[in-house]
Write a structure and sequence with these properties.
alpha/beta; Rossmann fold; two-stranded parallel ribbon; globular
């Protein structure tokens, strides 16, 4: 784009109410994470290195093409709302942990949700975000700087502490064991993603049950659906981002379709609702003790 830089193009397209923007550059690598997250700040939904081969021979190119297709066919019509109006307090549990899954469009969605929680959010937050290898450290720093929360890349044996956000590391599943201890598995396979949100949500079902909240944000495919079903069966409260505010309504839509969702909300309301659920559950527990 001679005489017209990428950042300027993103600003212009967003100001004009243009389509979602995916940044593709032959120069992108983890050392460029500042530029990547600057582009996301301006409104780009994803950033990828230019593929080196064709989709038929290069998995990275195939994934890039699928993302473009998913974003291009985005349907801007409201989805049928899942049952709402009840609260996690009806299940009689104090919320001890929250899990969030996201893919395409997820970094910006995560930033908005986490920013709404407050710096002293009283439970740990586990996050599975599908992102190109090598950019997770940059995303952790970007989220920490823009949300005011402590954002860490999870390590095996690390304790999940209240107020911290834990990102599943590149190429490994993250689960919660024994209530507070994180386990990292770099060898297990599950679907097409590693990390996958399914093992995380399944571990929340097993260790926390109704004391957990699961959130599924914008993203391609159906990762997280099986885990959310398990968590929902155990009494966990499930929130899905709505179709209209999602860049791609694949992951949230899949969870809604199988009946694993308690509430479907626009992105702008998810963080405050999560904070409300935790506060309600904590207040209920205090009244029970008093």
């Amino acid at each position: 784009m001679p005489g017209f830089g990428g950042f300027e193009a993103i600003r212009t397209l967003k100001a004009a109410g243009g389509p979602p923007v995916i940044v593709v550059s032959s120069a992108l690598d983890p050392s460029d994470d500042r530029r990547v997250f600057a582009a996301l700040d301006l409104g780009a939904v994803s950033a990828r290195a230019k593929p080196r081969g064709l989709p038929e021979t290069d998995p990275a190119a195939a994934a890039w093409l699928e993302e473009i297709k998913a974003v291009a066919v985005r349907v801007l019509e409201p989805a049928p709302a899942a049952p709402s109006g009840a609260t996690a307090g009806r299940k009689g549990c104090t919320i001890r942990v929250a899990g969030i899954a996201a893919s395409t469009g997820g970094p910006q969605a995560l930033r908005l949700v986490l920013s709404s929680l407050g710096r002293h959010f009283p439970v740990p937050v586990l996050v599975v975000q599908h992102i190109a290898p090598g950019f997770l450290t940059g995303m952790a720093g970007w989220l920490a700087a823009t949300t005011g929360l402590s954002v860490l890349i999870a390590e095996d044996g690390m304790r999940a502490e209240p107020g911290n956000v834990y990102l599943a590391p590149d190429g490994a599943h993250m689960t919660l064991e024994s209530g507070t201890v994180l386990h990292i598995d770099s060898k297990g396979t599950r679907g097409t993603h590693r990390p996958s949100a399914d093992p995380m949500f399944e571990s929340l079902a097993a260790t926390a049950g109704c004391s957990a909240v699961g959130v599924v944000l914008t993203g391609m495919g159906s990762d997280g659906t099986h885990g959310l079903e398990a968590l929902h069966r155990r009494g966990g409260w499930i929130i899905a981002q709505d179709r209209e505010s999602s860049i791609v309504w694949g992951m949230p839509g899949s969870a809604v379709d199988v009946g694993a969702v308690d509430e479907v909300l626009p992105l702008s309301r998810i963080g405050s609702r999560l904070a409300q659920l935790v506060d309600q559950a904590c207040s209920h527990a205090r009244r029970e003790r008093g």
